[in-house]
Amino acid sequence: MPTFYKCTRPDGTDFFSGSVDYAAALTSGELIVHPDAKPGDRSASRYLSVSTEVTNCTAMAWPARVFVVDPTLWDAAGPVRQAYLVASLDALGESMGRMLTIRHASKESGTSVADALVAMAKKADAKIVHATRAFDPAGVAEQNAVGLALAAQGVFLELTGSYYAVDPGAVAKPDGSPYKVYTPYFKRWFEIGWAKPEALAEVGHRWFIAEPCQGRPVPSKDSPFEIKAGEAYALRTWERFKQRALFNYDEMRNRADVSGTSHLSHALAFGEIHPRTLLAELADSPGHNVYRKEIAWREFYADVLWRNPHTTTEYYEPRFAEMRYDQGEQAEARFEAWKQGKTGYPMVDAGMRQLLTTGWMHNRVRMIVASFLVKDLHLEWQRGAAWFEECLTDFDPASNAHGWQWTAGCGTDASPYYRVFNPILQGLKFDPRGDYVRKYVPELAHIWDATIHEPWNRLDGLAHGYPAPIVDHSVERDESLARLAEIKIVKEEYPGK
């Protein structure tokens, strides 16, 4: 008969009731029948010998909490986002009393997420695996693969809930067709509404204690800054935001030079806080209403991507793929200048350097840098989206892809490519004193007024190594509109509600 080791409490009793003295049984050599065994069940797996060493667990008798790191998503992330995931897992494990088992699927070993979960299910003799439903293309594909693999072993995959207040696909026109622009989507989303957050119920079982991690991920580089993650930190951040800036969020959210946003995009992206938690505390006021609409934007993009899974990398409006985009050595050099924040346009460069140094960028500035890449440098939006995916700690596949497509003019917007952000005017409006630029562009720290957004017009503006503009915005704006005319897209054609 094989030996099955059993995790115990420090005193040697079982986790479930504390009444079965496994340590004494080990000393006496007697066999203990598993509490779940049915009368007459004499299978070896229902008999347990025990060890007082909790790490000697080779079989699980109670539910286990498991996280499997997907190598596809891990490899696409840069070191900062990798570090954030590890920090988030650390916080999650700590909140669970370290009762979290981590597995790391690996391309090198040929181990998939499905393989890892099947192995865990076999070890636990599990009949059901619970997971939060995914709606992005990669997540759906992964859950399909996991479900099929588990089903082959007689294990059912139960998908429950989502990371959204209203699930993608739930908001539609009366005829069942999807909304193509945000405003009518929001009205219907608000009408549908959402459930209130539920308190965690007291459970009548104990969790299987976590095994030592096998293949725990290690970021490719150390993070250049301290990462704070986890549910507890997210809730503290939310409380601070409510006191600090929620009341005038409608007025200050676009200002890059002040802390006018919630800084919860990381927590939402990693599932550390649920949008229903935030929505439940919003009242009917200008600041609260605009914040509610921003949450709806996130859910709108999730809905669009769920209905159009190809749009993570392909054009929502396919005709824009026909537009001329720059290629060659000069284009590559300009792309590198954009990535490193050396374009010669202070507001663009401040945003790109904020991204490099903090793993985050203000949302208004994301629009500015995206517009500059597509409409001043004439490079395809996918290149910028891929760079954001690598660098952003708050990367979300739907928000990233369709935020880029909205700004690039090829996405869900009733005024598409005609909108071209002027980086100088945007800087003057949303960083009027230059505080944001000075923080991230030290070569311009000697300029203490609005002329910081046009340093080339000052005698000392470029004196500390800041580069001259790599392009002329006014010229490139006209060039973008000329290229638009080449594919014969007129405003009235695109898109309807």
Assembly type: single chain
Low-pLDDT windows of residues: 1-6, 41-61
Mean pLDDT: 86
Strand content: under 5%
- Fraction of residues in H or I helices: 40-55%
Distance N to C terminus: 68 Å
Strands in their spatial order, largest beta sheet: 1-2
Give me the number of helical elements.
Answer: 19
Q: What is the name of the CATH architecture of the domain at 318-493?
A: Orthogonal Bundle
Q: Which structural class fits the helix and strand makeup?
A: mainly alpha
The helix-strand sequence is HEEEHHEHEHEHHHHHHHHHHHHHH
Q: What is the fold named in CATH at topology level of the domain at 318-493?
A: DNA Cyclobutane Dipyrimidine Photolyase, subunit A, domain 3
Shape: globular
Give a short account of the largest sheet: 2 strands, antiparallel
What value does the Rg take, in angstroms? 27 Å
- Tally the beta strands: 6
**Corresponding CATH superfamily of the domain at 318-493:** DNA Cyclobutane Dipyrimidine Photolyase, subunit A, domain 3
CATH C-level label of the domain at 318-493: Mainly Alpha
Explain the layout of strands and helices.
Layout: H1 22-28, E1 32-33, E2 47-48, E3 66-69, H2 71-76, H3 79-95, E4 101-104, H4 113-124, E5 128-132, H5 137-151, E6 156-160, H6 182-192, H7 231-244, H8 249-252, H9 265-269, H10 275-279, H11 286-307, H12 329-340, H13 346-358, H14 363-376, H15 381-391, H16 397-408, H17 423-430, H18 435-440, H19 473-486
Helix pairs in contact: 4-5, 6-11, 11-16, 13-14, 14-16, 15-16
